[in-house]
Amino acid sequence: MLNVKTPEEVLAIIEREFCPLPGRTELTALDEALGRVLAEDIIGEEYVPDFHRSTVDGYALRAEDSFGCSESVPAILPCTGEVLMGEAADFTLDRGCCCAVPTGGALPRGADCVVMLEYAEDYGDGTIGICKSAAPGQNLIFRGDDVCPGKVLLEKGRTLNSRDIGALAAMGRVRVPVVKKLRVALISTGDELVPPEEKPGSGQVRDVNGPMLSSLLRGFGAEPIYYGIVKDEEEKLRAAVEHALENCDVVLLSGGSSVGAKDAACRVIGSLGELLLHGIAIKPGKPTILGKAGVKPLVGLPGHPVAAWFVTELFVLPLLSRLMGRERESYSLSARLTESVSANHGRAQYQGLRLERREGELWARPMRSKSGLISSLAGAEGFFCIDRDCEGLPEGAEIRVTIGE
Amino acid sequence: MLNVKTPEEVLAIIEREFCPLPGRTELTALDEALGRVLAEDIIGEEYVPDFHRSTVDGYALRAEDSFGCSESVPAILPCTGEVLMGEAADFTLDRGCCCAVPTGGALPRGADCVVMLEYAEDYGDGTIGICKSAAPGQNLIFRGDDVCPGKVLLEKGRTLNSRDIGALAAMGRVRVPVVKKLRVALISTGDELVPPEEKPGSGQVRDVNGPMLSSLLRGFGAEPIYYGIVKDEEEKLRAAVEHALENCDVVLLSGGSSVGAKDAACRVIGSLGELLLHGIAIKPGKPTILGKAGVKPLVGLPGHPVAAWFVTELFVLPLLSRLMGRERESYSLSARLTESVSANHGRAQYQGLRLERREGELWARPMRSKSGLISSLAGAEGFFCIDRDCEGLPEGAEIRVTIGE
Known about the structure:
Chain A has about 400 residues and is of the alpha/beta class. Chain A is built from 6 helices and 28 strands. Chain A folds into 4 domains: about 5-25 and about 180-325, MoaB/Mog-like domain (Molybdenum Cofactor Biosythetic Enzyme, Chain A); about 25-45 and about 155-180, Molybdopterin biosynthesis moea protein, domain 2; about 55-140, Molybdopterin biosynthesis moeA protein, domain 3 (Beta Complex), CATH 2.170.190.11; about 330-400, Beta Barrel (Beta-clip). The first copy, chain A, has helices spanning about 5-15, 160-170, 210-220, 235-245, 260-270, 305-325; strands at about 25-30, 40-45, 55, 60, 75-80, 100, 115, 120, 125-130, 140, 150-155, 175-180, 185-190, 195, 205, 225-230, 250-255, 275-280, 280-285, 290-295, 295-300, 330-335, 340, 350-360, 360-365, 380-385, 390-395, 400. In chain A, the strands form 8 sheets. A 6-stranded mixed beta sheet of chain A has the order 7-4-6-5-9-8, with no helix packed on it. Chain A has a 6-stranded mixed beta sheet with strand order 16-13-17-21-20-18, sandwiched between helices. Chain A is elongated, with a radius of gyration of 31 Å. Chain A starts with 6 loop residues before the first helix and ends with a strand. In chain A, about 50% of the residues are buried. Chains A and B meet through helix 2, strand 15 and helix 3 of A and helix 2, strand 15 and helix 3 of B.
């Protein structure tokens, strides 16, 4: 008997039964860090920039020496130096003097602002006329404005994007502490399956879940290990799962959609570990099994590709996030349905959709087809859910769209 | 003089001046195809599945033989066979008979529906009692329901996701025609720059744009080629750009933020190709140059990392999409501002933000800091834009949030 859980219950079981795996930190090169998960907070260790820095081309001076000046009555200051780009400004600016600085150049000691070239006139005799008064701090970045020692810049659990990589480069963090990728075993079961490169005979179909879930996992940042197609025989299945358990952090088996095979997957998972749930109240995706062997999850996915995709997206990725200590927020878009959709089977119903724009508004066209057809997901831009209590949604109804991995 | 264009004008220039590069199709293995751009429509070449397929465990029969039956008056049919999973059903079912089929199994000729096990009783004498009448087509997928010859499954220009990979696997398309990755040269210029792994001396800063834009481009699906840091000297810059032009499809140079260096970048781009624009009315990012040498774009990006990031995200990625014939839709989320933001400089203002949830609603906290600080983007989940005509937005105002690459 299936002891069917709601999606919320399944996520709670994942949260309760699994925790971030210890000892998973590794250092990666900065140019390999995109999409990886930070294993530690990134904390400033030095000042960036390490000097007061001009944000314009102009003249550095003491702000007070410009007070009260104007275009008609400029402040006339001797120009006692020039800072070159990329060089230290290792001198003190005397009161009543100024010095030329380029954008990004360092300020000499004593200077506390920069007046833009546009508001200064070079008289050619070693003096500069300043035509606009400046406030202290104007047109400069202070030492440590960007990063200073002790400041937390990026938090543990964050998935690094290109902007974060920029911040790490600015701090000189060229070796980044990230969470090791999880090795996720994929085993496809089913006597009817042939590899995608083969032409199926009558009664046979190609294994879709292997390549599809591999790419879903790879895009998420895991390392999929494909163990190929195993025949629907309990002993072969057990041997394959045992082997995968030794070499991987997580084992996903998909398929075994006939009654006997379903029971076999359940018995194998139950015999190698603890059975946590059997059945989720979603459509498609009901015949899902979750167990654990030690700290390692064992997941029995439905054989139908569409169901396997949804269960992986909705439950396996959160499970992997949990094991990695990854903070993962998924945002949804708002759109309107182009047509009505029915649903009344006591399960949350997930459906692929295509998005289109009508006068700037986003509309969602649900992909319709019989259950289990991969073409009901191919070409989809995202998906939506109809709650289990809902009997359907009318045309024009507002829905929340998830783009998904 | 900067001939400043609005963002819309810049996108129109890109559309007008550049077009998809010819002869860029290559075949890639299915497990390398995630995130790649389809170079051709994917059209069905065979029937998937190639046989009528049961979606349940049960008995295949002619629907008419079940008409009028019920639990109290079952239709009693001889069971004349059993289809095994993965095997052909190479026989014709006689009228008034049934045969056992597993989920996913093939139907024999003549059968046009499947009755679930739950509605059948095996009398043990070679006959089966069917307790529920079935309609033709019930519980089965017809041959070609998923894919049939001539059906367009995925369109040229589409970026492949894991669901699309599944469809390709189902069709046996293990070699996928995709658009070759664009080789994008990155040249950082600036006398003040040192590589990220070096400790900057006084007046120096680390090159942020090299690693940051590399990862932005890689995440987008291009192949960044980093040419390192070039000093602000026109002849060195020209030599570097010429060399990059020979080896790459696109050249991005970032930096040269002092007046002389800016002019040098402009002269180099102008001398090696045609100058298309100089200056975009956005903040940050105004000092941007776009040119083309033959069909190859040359882009002069601002030196400030935040400005360089926005210009790459907002204009360079659309430019690369244009060259690849990539259809790229970016969706935005709706959120409310946690605090007011001012803007009144006649340019569209882009700003990073962090997202937080308050009672299920999405709120955006703008990252505040002086222009040019990378920490104003690090840790940001996305960004928003304040239009050039807008003088600012109050707390609580609804904004459109882009997550970005």
